[in-house]
Amino acid sequence: MTPIQSKMARVALGWGTRDLAQKANVSPDTIARLERGERLRAGTMETIRAAFEAAGIEFIPENGGGAGVRFRKPSESN
């Protein structure tokens, strides 16, 4: 997850930095540091990513078209 992917995911979900911080159980300053491009601990990054994924976000790796985010496709059982 890149800083821009974090911002894009928040916008897609309609979350501010405080919303994400609450969902990921981290401080709003931690979210601001991530989105400024500062290095965070791997465990903190995983916690933030897990909060996004629990909300339905899927991260798209850079594969020639640039990294991005999208909503996960609903499963057939839903």
- Integer average pLDDT: 93
**In one word, what is the shape?**
globular
The sequence of SSEs as H and E is HHHHEE
Individual helix count? 4
- The percent range for strand residues is 5-15%
Q: Mind describing the biggest β-sheet? A: 2 strands, antiparallel
β-strand number: 2
**Class of secondary structure makeup:** mainly alpha
CA-to-CA gap between the ends? Answer: 27 Å
Poorly predicted runs are: none
Integer-rounded radius of gyration: 12 Å
Describe this structure in words.
The structure is a single chain. The protein has 78 residues and is mainly α. It contains four helices and two strands, in the order ααααββ. The chain has helices spanning 3-13, 17-24, 28-35, 42-54, and strands spanning 57-60, 68-71. Strands 1-2 form a two-stranded antiparallel ribbon. The radius of gyration is 12 Å and the shape is globular.
Give the structure's gist in a few sentences.
By secondary structure, this protein is mainly alpha-helical.
